[in-house]
Write a structure and sequence with these properties.
DNA polymerase, domain 1; elongated; alpha+beta
Amino acid sequence: MPKAKKLPSGSYRCQVFAGYEMVDGKKKRKYESFTAPTKREAEAAAARWAATKKPRPDNLSVLESVKKYISAREPVLSPSTVRGYNACLDRFEMIADKSIRKLTDADVQIWVSDLSTRLSPKTVKNTYGLFTAAVQFVSPDTSFNVHLPSKLKKDYYLPSDHDIKKLLDYANGPLWIAIMLARYYSLREGEICALRSDDLQGNVLTVRRAMIHTKDNEWILVGRPKTDDSYRYLIVSDPLLSVLKQIDGYFIDCNPNALANRFRRALAACKIKPFNFHTLRHMFASSAAMMGIPDFYTAKMGGWSQNSTVLKSVYQNVRDEDFRAQMDRMNKSMQHDLQHETPKNKKRAAK
């Protein structure tokens, strides 16, 4: 095995014979070069390659690799996903110019740890996920051993039924329709804004389109919802059904951003603790769980995949009032049991 030589920069380079290539009609020797901070590391990298002689990835930087991955996947990704990928390119600044070939576990860990001081664990995980996908795309045999920040359990706030009734009493027109569709039928904002009168046949509402945000910051209609499971049929009843039947065209006259703004203003006017419009979808899943509806049907109504971990871990949260009601049931059961205790057991408990 060739020995590594020290470079003027202080690093070590080890070159391995990789065969011949034709240059200007002449046969010339070709070498693969491995550079590392120490002699041992350079020689070890060269030895690993020499054992298999697999084609090495292009000598791309991290940022070039990520951009190449995004560009290759863009035709099959949703515009919102592409927009999200492009929005996080600045997070790669620390390692942007480093070559994938020369990147070490230490380099990646320092970068991840730096991100963790500024971003949430979920954001760090998503950014690292894009990084690893890009690395696998340009260099399938490259992997890194990195420790990600621990996930924080989010405390989801769910409003009370009293708050929702107060909100519905205040709202009218499109906003009232939107709140009803989200709270009692679990529709997403983009799905609500894409609904038209021809989606309603009798009392059956078909969710088949969505309004999405493109990478060019424009709202457009697409002929499919967010996922395959999101394409669904819902049975609508009064009072919503009679209102929808009176409309010809789109049920909602705005995009999801404008809908969210109307919703925030309504919350302020009703003096209700602020929460996101999407929280209404959480309330649907939570109510279904409290009613004992099997997850299979809840997922089908809400457009989640079957056995969805997201449905269980994120959406099926318990409201304080429901939690107290269940605790009351447990306490009443306990009191019932104690009423039938024998005098001997009561005496023992008093000691």
